[in-house]
Design brief:
The complex is a heterotrimer of chains A (about 230), B (about 300) and C (about 500).
Chain A (H helix, E strand, L loop, with lengths): L1 H5 L3 H19 L1 H5 L13 H12 L14 H7 L28 H4 L2 H9 L1 H4 L10 H4 L4 H15 L11 H21 L8 H9 L5 H11 L2
Chain B lengths: L2 H23 L7 H30 L23 H21 L7 H20 L4 H20 L19 H10 L18 H12 L11 H7 L18 H10 L1 E2 L4 E2 L8 H12 L4
Antiparallel strand pairs in B: 1-2
Helix pairs in contact in B: 1-2, 5-10, 6-7, 9-10
Chain C lengths: L11 H29 L13 H33 L7 H26 L13 H23 L8 H20 L2 E3 H4 L9 E3 L3 H36 L6 H15 L14 H13 L1 H14 L4 H6 L1 H23 L2 H7 L3 H31 L6 H34 L11 H39 L16
Antiparallel strand pairs in C: 1-2
Helix pairs in contact in C: 1-2, 1-3, 1-16, 2-3, 2-4, 2-7, 2-14, 3-4, 4-5, 5-7, 5-8, 7-10, 7-14, 8-10, 9-12, 10-12, 12-14, 14-15, 14-16, 15-16
The chains are: A mainly alpha (about 230), B mainly alpha (about 300), C mainly alpha (about 500).
The complex binds protoporphyrin IX containing FE (HEM) (2 copies), calcium ion (2 copies) and copper (II) ion (CU).
Chain lengths: ~230, ~300, ~500
């Protein structure tokens, strides 16, 4: 019988195993690629500053506690806003849906929270939301976000996946040096809205930006505000 | 049933009782179909595992091992050529049938749409909601407003409505003096009232102080004479002239509607817009709840 | 058929990987315990500055227990079982020994560097695939080396037919190879941008919903080919071997194996229920998850029936006790998972601690119990010494069993409660609870879980101590026992 035979012929067994496990992927995953997630109308790619903020989100692994996927239930749309649709994620590499909601969903947090709120909250969550178990992320005021890497990512997705960035985003050091002031200006705009915390004043944040570095918190807030 | 099985099933029952007790304590409505199916599912997990595992474990005590040995032997390990356990085989068939049902009738793979289901759910709900609360009593509105407030607004305005240390508007009173002075000085144009913009510099110096004082302390009694310049828009009593300009004495329904639709930016900070998030009754309820600061 | 005595097996690789299994097991669970405590007592987030927050440490926990502990355990048992059931010694091939040693050192160094990279926040942020591309390449090399070893050993085997365990190890190797490669496809931005930014950073080849599909096709099957397939391979060797009982039914083994492989791959979309992936894919995920009960329970029942009539072994031999309980927990998680995959149930369960409970009755009750049993079985044979203390094993058994039960029951209640609180509406149809209300409601369960964590960790430390004492001070034994492992009373 077939199986008795295959148990004595390891090469065929390996081939058969591979075949058996490959079927599902072909039938279940590939079809979705055919109609690759197209962006919803009006969706803009992340700015370089927002990308840097997304890196902070990834680095500090907010996905451990936060989802970015609003399911089509009334209880979720009441709490977080419209349910998520596929095309909204077209520029998300990787996707950041998460799988655990120790904290609330953040897919539309930009609609109902503000720069100042995030500033106060990230500095000390329980002071803003009594009983919060979210850690404070004060190192984000000290550390500089890696805007150069964010730029490198923008260049990459522009060239490889035709993400619609403008002509300013190009390969190479020179192009980056030329683009950098744009990022700093974006950062300054966010920082202008901030209020300052008991530990770090608004002036210090602005000073850091003027010296060519963007504090992680500024990039992160730009990213969170963008989630709409 | 033997002792072991009784104990393990008893444990499963205990777990289910505890689960139900806790969710009941949290006022969860178990007649909601999703909640009900979940509870049934949880019970299936607990009892099937407990029952089936202990059935086979008990067999270690009562049964003996028999069978025809296969010819192979690996490192001293032999293998019987026993038939499939009957229960397993029948269950296999049962599960197969269930799968066909689920995929073809329950959630037909060719027809089922979760978004369609959502739309239906919301429409039905809204219809029922509008009908039930078209003439909601004052008490109901207050209660409803409080519950929405605690979920949506408390993260900024605080559970006690005091603005959480200046983080947002202190909703236990109308406006503070500094806010009013700011608006008088700089004007304001963001809420979308029929009157349009409020011009800057309508009053200054002592006059402005006096007006602001009056509004900030609750707009009680007759307004100071200086308020006349404001009255053309806000009404002689400061109540907003039938919705043409903001009511300065309380958070009325019209103000609520405008603030939720447009958000507001002032000297305290930025209030985000909640456009499209509430139906009119809910906006009314929120206004009613905020007005309760006067009580 | 030849007798065992004629062959002298080489256990040096099995020993090295056993050492790593224990090391990573301890580290991973220590961090797990800290994570559990942080959710109950948030001030513990600040012990290590920016490196000590829950969010930074969580991937460290998952990666150490999966790629450190479990994978070492798989390697260790393979290098032990493989030789024995294929009836061939690694001594017979210098080549395979060299490959194995390179695999070991590359793995050891790679694992340590990978841990450091995660601590630094160098991550792709895809669950269970966090490692950035340079580490992915190391993982692939290690995996290929292991594959060489499996194929090589099979190539020079004396036993014509492959034993069931070998089927499972082979499937583990092939499955992970395929999954890992596809899911980690990414472009390193440093090279594609003309030398800008971080060398480590990469960007996924897939975006949005597509990325999600590939990720959970991987994530789900990483569970399949990491926590299920090889562990089933282990129990098929260690339980019959330890008890001396023949496997109950060849037919059941056969159906369970091929059924498992065929069905598992379809079920990945149960992680994407109610998301933006097409509805029909989600439904397929539910259907195949429920079908998955059968092959999973098939293996477990096969093992339980193998012990038919052997009650006294269950009561007297703690290793048998561990393995029977492991089978039972395997049954629990492989029915809990399918039920959680049903649409309505997933609406409650997804995103909550009920999933965390499901994860841990699988890993703590099944994976860790099996790997510990394997090490208890192998150590006396590799080191020719009797297990140091039976009393310690017994205490450990009850401590850890209680801990798993506390862990899963507390998370079960916490998850169901939170899931239902998120949906709860008041008499007006408005949400009844703010998010923070639902967080506060979980506090007692987080405390219970912390206690369970400490108990489980303490049990694992007893295990470490017992093995350490066995290796250094256990009574020496001359002849290898055929079946039951010798344990000092
Ligand atoms: C003392 C033992 C352990 C404790 C106290 C523990 C604790 C934890 C905690 C607190 C989490 C995070 C849960 C959350 O985000 O809410 C977690 C996640 C996880 N742990 Fe453990 N753990 C332990 C052992 C293990 C072992 C041995 C494994 C695997 C072999 C494991 C695999 C996982 C996985 C896969 C996750 C991620 C689950 C998910 O994302 O859904 N854990 N653990
Ligand atoms: C019949 C077999 C199984 C099925 C159908 C199944 C099903 C599921 C489902 C539906 C989820 C939750 C997805 C979500 O809503 O987030 C899940 C999560 C999980 N299961 Fe299973 N499960 C099975 C067996 C196991 C076993 C034996 C283990 C481990 C030993 C395991 C480990 C996990 C892990 C680690 C996760 C968390 C994934 C994440 O990070 O979100 N599962 N499983
Ligand atoms: Ca997860
Ligand atoms: Ca990776
Ligand atoms: Cu899964």
């Amino acid at each position: 019988m077939f199986f008795r035979w295959i148990e004595r012929n390891p090469f065929f067994m390996a081939a058969w195993i591979s075949l058996v496990i490959a079927v599902a992927g072909l039938i279940e995953i590939v079809p979705d690629f055919a109609k690759a997630a197209r962006p919803v109308e009006g969706l803009k790619p992340y700015t370089v500053l927002e990308l840097a903020g997304k890196e902070v989100y990834k680095k500090d692994n907010c996905i451990a506690c936060h989802s970015q996927l609003i399911r089509p239930f009334k209880s979720e749309t009441d709490r977080y806003g419209d349910f998520s649709v596929s095309g909204e994620y077209a520029y998300d590499r990787p996707f950041l849906w998460g799988s655990k909601r120790t904290g609330p969903d953040l897919h539309r947090v930009g609609r109902y929270r503000t720069t100042v709120w995030h500033e106060a909250h990230m500095w000390n969550p329980p002071a803003v939301v009594p009983g919060s178990i979210m850690p404070a992320y004060r190192h984000m005021w000290k550390n500089a976000a890696d805007i150069e890497t964010a730029y490198a990512e923008a260049v990459t997705v522009k060239n490889a996946f035709h993400t619609p960035y403008g002509p300013g985003i190009r390969k190479g050091k020179e192009a980056w040096e030329k683009y950098k002031p744009t990022v700093l200006a974006q950062a300054r705009k966010v920082a202008e809205e901030m209020k300052g915390t008991e530990g770090v004043s608004k002036e210090e944040v602005l000073k850091m930006i003027d010296s060519g570095k963007v504090p992680e918190i500024v990039a992160l807030i730009a990213y969170l505000n963008r989630l709409k | 049933m033997n002792g072991l099985m009784a104990k393990v099933i008893g444990f499963a029952a205990l777990l289910m009782v505890a689960t139900i007790a806790v969710v009941k304590y949290m006022h969860v409505d178990l007649s909601d179909p999703v909640n009900l199916i979940t509870m049934v599912g949880a019970a299936a997990v607990a009892f099937l595992t407990a029952g089936v595992a202990t059935k086979y474990i008990s067999q270690m005590k009562t049964d003996t091992s028999t069978g025809e040995l296969a010819e192979e032997n690996w490192d001293g390990i032999g293998e019987y050529k026993n038939e499939l356990p009957a229960g397993w085989a029948y269950t296999f068939v049962g599960v197969f049938v269930w799968s066909l049902w689920y995929g073809l009738l329950g959630y037909p793979v060719t027809a089922y749409s979760q978004v369609g289901e959502y739309n239906k759910e919301v429409q039905e709900y809204n219809k029922k909601f509008a009908k039930t609360f078209a003439n909601a009593s004052d008490e109901q509105l207050l209660d409803m407003g409080r519950s929405i407030y605690l979920v949506q607004c408390a993260p900024c305005h605080g559970i006690t409505r005091d603005g959480n240390d200046g983080q947002a508007q202190d909703l236990t009173k109308r406006m503070a003096k500094a806010q009013i002075l700011d608006v008088i000085k700089n004007g304001q144009n963001q809420l979308g009232y029929p009157m349009g913009a409020m011009p800057p510099g309508m009053a200054s110096g002592e006059a402005a102080e006096k007006i602001a004082e009056w509004i900030a302390s609750g707009a009680k009694g007759t307004p100071p004479a200086e308020f006349a310049v404001c009255a053309s828009c806000h009404g002689a009593d400061g109540k907003g002239n039938n919705g043409m300009a903001p009511n300065l004495t309380t958070y009325d329904e019209t103000l609520m509607k405008h603030v939720l639709e447009h958000g507001k930016k002032g000297i305290i900070g930025q209030m985000p817009a909640f456009k499209g998030r509430f139906v009119p009754v809910q906006e009314k309820a929120l206004a009613r709840y905020l007005q309760s600061f006067e009580e | 058929m030849q007798s065992n005595a004629a062959l002298e097996y080489d256990y040096s690789l099995a020993k090295k990987f056993t050492f790593l299994t224990i090391l990573f097991g301890f580290l991973g669970m220590l961090i797990g315990t800290l994570l559990a405590a942080q959710l109950a007592f948030p001030s513990l987030n600040y012990l290590l500055g920016e490196y000590g927050t829950f969010s930074r440490l969580r991937p460290l926990h998952t990666n150490i227990v999966i790629f450190g502990f479990t994978v070492s355990g798989i390697f260790a048992t393979w290098f032990y079982i493989g030789q024995r059931v294929l009836k061939v010694s690694l001594k017979e091939s210098k080549f395979l020994m060299t490959v194995g040693n390179i695999q070991f050192w590359l793995y050891f160094v790679g694992a340590l560097l990978a841990v450091v990279s995660l601590l630094m926040g160098i991550t792709e942020s895809k669950e269970y695939a966090q490692f950035e591309w340079p580490f992915d390449i190391v993982v692939v090399i290690i995996w290929v080396l292991w594959g060489l070893n499996i194929m090589g050993l099979i190539g020079i085997r004396r036993e014509k037919a492959l034993y069931i365990s070998v089927w499972y190890y082979l499937a583990c190797f092939l499955g992970i190879s395929m999954l890992y490669l596809f899911n980690n496809m990414a472009l390193p931005t440093y090279f594609t941008s003309g030398g800008l930014g971080s060398f480590f950073h990469s960007v996924s080849m897939y975006s949005g919903t597509n990325d999600a599909l590939v990720q959970w096709w991987y994530g789900h099957n990483a569970v399949a080919f990491g926590f299920t397939v090889p562990i089933v391979g282990m129990i098929y060797y260690f339980l019959p071997k330890e008890s001396g009982q023949p496997v109950y039914s060849y037919k059941l083994s056969l159906l369970s194996f091929w059924g498992l492989l065929f069905v598992y791959l379809w079920a990945g979309s149960h992680h994407l229920m109610w998301s933006t992936v097409p509805d029909w894919m989600q439904t397929m995920g539910s259907v195949f998850s429920v079908l998955l009960i059968l092959p999973s329970w098939g293996s477990a029942i096969n093992m339980l029936l193998t012990m038919k009539g052997e009650w006294q072994q269950l009561t007297e031999n703690p290793l048998i006790k561990f393995m029977i309980l492991a089978s039972t927990f395997y049954m629990l998680s492989t029915i809990e998972g399918p039920i959680q995959a049903v649409r309505s149930v997933n609406a409650i369960a997804h995103f909550t601690d009920w999933i965390i409970g499901h994860v841990h009755d699988g890993v703590l009750g099944w994976v860790v119990f099996m790997i510990m049993s394997a090490i208890y079985h192998m150590t006396p044979r590799m080191f020719k010494r009797e297990i140091y203390s039976k009393k310690l094993i017994e205490t450990q058994f009850w401590l850890q069993t209680t801990a798993v039960v506390l862990y899963f029951t507390s998370m079960w209640i916490a998850g169901i409660t939170q899931g239902m609180m998120w949906r709860a509406v008041d008499e007006y149809g408005n949400l009844m609870y703010s998010f923070i209300d639902t967080v506060n409601a979980l506090h007692p369960y987080y405390v219970i879980r912390t206690i369970a964590a400490i108990m489980y960790l303490a049990g694992f430390m007893m295990f470490m101590y017992n093995i350490y004492k066995t290796v250094t001070a256990g009574r020496e034994i001359e002849e290898e026992p055929q079946f039951r492992t010798p344990i000092a009373a």
